[in-house]
Amino acid sequence: MKIIVAGATGAIGRQLVPMLAEAGHKVVGLTRSKSKTSVIEGAGAEAVVADVLDAEAVEAAMRAAEPEVVVHELTAIPPVVNPRRFAEEFAPTNRLRREGTRNLVAAALAAGSRRIIAQSIAQAYAPVGNWIKAEREPLYGGAPPVFRDTFDAVIDLEATVLGANGLESIVLRYGNFYGPGTAYGRDGSNAELVRRQMFPIAGEGSARWSFIHVRDAARATLVAVSRGEPGVYNIVDDEPAAIADWLPVYAAALGAAEPPRTPAPRSAYGTYGMLLARGASNSKAKRLLGWAPRYASWRGGFAADLGLASNPGS
Ligand SMILES: NC(=O)c1ccc[n+]([C@@H]2O[C@H](COP(=O)([O-])OP(=O)(O)OC[C@H]3O[C@@H](n4cnc5c(N)ncnc54)[C@H](OP(=O)(O)O)[C@@H]3O)[C@@H](O)[C@H]2O)c1
Question: Would you say residue 268 lies in a domain?
Answer without folding.
Answer: no
